[in-house]
Batch of 4 targets.
Target 1
Amino acid sequence: MDLIDLLILCICFIFARIWWRYWSVTGSGPKNLPPGPPGWPLVGNLFQTILQRRPFIYIVRDLRLKYGKIFTMQMGQRTLVIVTSSELIHEALVQGGPTFASRPADSPIRLIFSVGKSAINSAEYGPLWRSLRKNFVTQFVNPVRIKQCSWVRQYASENHMKRIKRESLENGFVEVMSNCRLTICSILICLCFGARISEERITNIEGILKEVMLMTTPKLPDFLPILAPLFRNKMKEAIELRKKQMECLVPLIRNRRAFVEKGENPDSEMWLPCPTAPPDPTETFAFTVVMKNPLKAVILSR
């Protein structure tokens, strides 16, 4: 190897070193982000996180000791600013609420289940989100509604105890987590429809919701969209699961609408099971269901 070849090799090595150092730095720079752990070019800290094979919260806990209460992680094409202090969280989400109120772009799979970011937990900050939030607060979580729906909690608690006793007698043990999850799901579904939904239906809905949760967990294409073609089967599975979800929920919505239009019927599943504590006559229920042929939001009054 002559002197020119050696010189070219050294120059290439220096440029490669500079390039690696430039693309591996996390935080600071023109965006003025908090410093964070150095990553790899193009993928940032993504593969470093995956290779650790630990829950992400444990990784954050360790990084906090080194980089402080706020730091940056570059996960592929997504930049995450991790905040681990209650004071900083309050400053960001309460004092600077409008600035940080919106949400980042969703993956194609999440867009299927969030109906194009039209759900309360996915909508961007704006008129739609404020309308959904207002409906949720006024119809679900205000003290009057909570008191009126005490029968839901009683109904769910009774079924919960029956399941625990039955499992204890049949199996000799009780699956605490699955029973608690089903009970909470029962309360939410009965509140949504304003009626006592059978436990068989609730079990079916809870199983589908669990599948949806697993389907929408972050995957590689969420951070590296260039890999999306390799996950086409996941998109097909998500579409099929969405159809299954609609086939489960749409009949309940239609039954509720038919029940309200025809009046009280004690034989109907949608009958209010607590006549001693009737709801406010002005009570309304809003159901938003979007399918391939979208069903518009329907406001149903009792």
Target 2
Amino acid sequence: MQPLTGFLSHSSLQAPTVLPKARSGRRMLGAHRRAVVVRSESKQNPLFPESLINSISVAVKKSPLNAGKKALAIAQAGKYDETATRAKIDAWIANNPVVVFSWSGCPFCKKAKALLDSEGAKYTALELDQMPDGKAIRAELAKLTDRTSVPNIWIAGRQGEGHWCQNVGGCSDGPGVATLQSKGQLAPMLQAAGAL
């Protein structure tokens, strides 16, 4: 299945976007419809839900919608000390093998933390909705990672004598811990980070 490039862009509001062929062989036109049905490809691709979520995330990230989401996150944060907030984020990431920036009621956050728990990973979960400066942290994360969604997960790594951290996205996007686990890549990353 091809990514849904342009599916969420402002141009798709002006003209229908041609989506992949439906089972009948006819193409579906999606922009003017309220719902688009995507057939399950689980037999051909066991990663279908994750690959669909990643395709949508890529489309959103490349669209004007992402700039609007970032601007909203920054506006919701109000006035805050950007340097001090960024320093907090950098310290959490540098001093922990895995950091999950989370929202306590978010189902994707709960799923990502449950997945890390099932792996036996040591991680630090920061519930942004329960922190006085949580909105400021989310705004700085949006600037840092170009994404506003949670969970926002960082995993440390080591290369020779050096130490680095990488943002692996969320639960099922960017690529996300669920996608990494299903590809057999999560456990080695957690091991390298010292989280297992």
Target 3
Amino acid sequence: MVKKIKMPWTWTSELPDWSHLPELAVHLMSTKVKSIVDYVRFRAVCSSWRSASPPKPSHLPPQLPWLMIHDITTIKEGITLFYDLWESKMHKLHLPEIVNMWCLASCHGWLLLTTTSGQEVFLLNPLTRARIQLPPFNTELKYLDNDRDAPFYDCLHLSVNKLTFSTDLTDPNCLIMVFYQKMIMIQICRVGEPRWTVVTSGPLHSYEIIQDATYYNGRLYLLYDEAMQIVDLNKPEERIVCTLDPKLQNFRMRFLEGKSGVYVVITHSSIEEDEVDSAAHNTKYDIKKTRKPKMELYQFQEQSLKLKQITDTNNTAVFCGWRDFFLAVCSYDWDSVDYVGGNYIDAPGSNYHICSTKMDSGKSEVLCDLDAGHFIESLMWFQPSFH
């Protein structure tokens, strides 16, 4: 005897009723979606699809960043613009929380917002509208390695250029760290703490400016012009200082976020000669000298305390952001996107272009032109996430 299977639609209907698909089938389909925007659309099909797919999925890969555009005309109305490279589309999110606030940095889908005075400080997830309150910036600080109070300076917090977390924000022991652009200190806190804790350069570099900083595996890495300092947060009095290769000291160096390990990006330019037609000089070719941007990627070796250059960059895309912030995205997750592998993507605020440049050759192309009608105050890469 053949058992009849009830289909979710009748053959006489014009369109199938997809809302009656088995819950397991809907859930399996949802795990095949990798774009966060497509996942939102998937859950919006109907109530049964929404209940069969988790609101905070764990299968989504790290997303291609959106370009957060601080347009002074729309921000007053609580509208924030995000340009999505994946869809070549501008998203408009209603975020009244951002009105009259400074957006200092972003990390893992969260924005760091503060008032000019620094009295109000919080994290905001633009997709979920979740909000996490942080200690104010305009109160006394404390030092990590002793019990002394540290002074605060008015409006110093407006120079924050990077935000990072030690673990997931749901972990009560998660450290939230803010790094200041070209300063001599870093501030850390946990959710619920009343004030920030200060990590300074230490006696060896007490007056030297920290060019950049990053966190990895319980340690802070501080980058100077000629050296790198490693601070174990469990033993802040014990610090390791590594002198950088003299060949690298003349270039601009910044840490690369988004990869497991400690990576450094070095940017510079080179003068290259190209042969061009020249009828004016009665010669077949003229030599034209052009300045081309170059980017090199290095990984810090924990055993040798040296930087080792990564020659194969085809599996990495580097997004160059506001205030020298660099974010990496693995091309394995986005192999269908041509501009990801081996490129760095830049969005300078002066010409409204998003450009992709090959790391090895320096060859550039314009990916898109932003609407020049926007009154752009700042641009920031934002990696959307539900968590």
Target 4
Amino acid sequence: MCNFYYCTREINILTCAFFIKFLLADLSFEIEKSFKNCSSSLDTVPFLFIFKGVNQIDNDLKARASAYNNLKGNLQNLERKNAGSLLTRSLADIVKKEDFVLDSEYLVTLLVIVPKLNYNDWVKQYETLAEMVVPRSSNVLFEDQDSYLCNVTLFRKAVDDFKHKAREFKFMVRDFQYNEEEMKADKEEMNRLSTDKKKQFGPLVRWLKVNFSEAFIAWIHVKALRVFVESVLRYGLPVNFQAMLLQPNKKTMKKLREVLYDLYKHLDSSAAAIIDATMDIPGLNLSQQEYYPYVYYKIDCNLLEFK
């Protein structure tokens, strides 16, 4: 959506610190709410209660991001009109009032794009491309890498003939009418969009920081609940297990797997066969790398690292 990559290191450090001090937030998510009260409303089920809060954050994010991106897109469209070659870009910020003959019943000023390679031909020929062209009325108003923007003044009734003849010599006449009020309105609109974009960016970043924290906490609570539920399903009641958090480096990952397998292989005799064979359990999307004799869930802290 938006480019907040600079937050990556800060957030990764904070998430690691959060794991160290993690404590199940009973009050925030009503984890201990009795399931006897769940019959009246599914919203009181712990999982759904958490998902409801995260879903609200997601909806708010979509609304805020959409508003910001629309604003950014409108500004980029206006900026794009003022960029590019002279054949396509807006000329409003280039030309001036004195470049035109205005409010004349008979005369009109045209803007012509002349390739630099053909400029000498333009100087020699523009007065004879049609009848009633005002002599010495052409000036170079602007130039880019490939072309010159020139003006020329002629009688209104000769405009069509002039355009037709100009195309034969690769001179492109731009359709442009000088309107000071419209040009001023476009400039004010761009300034307004630019100001609004800056005003929205700061609050949006602050909102993202706050709600990333809330969403991440909810996500970790879901992980904790999944560990608990899976452990009960595997090992039964009464509850007699301990959840732990391990953070091995990549070099010791394989060794850690071997040690954990040796310690807990007695808990699930079927895990020995699963390590060397694929596993297909209806309703579960588990691959051979994800199933172990102990309950395991991976937590990736590098949430904002883009590859």
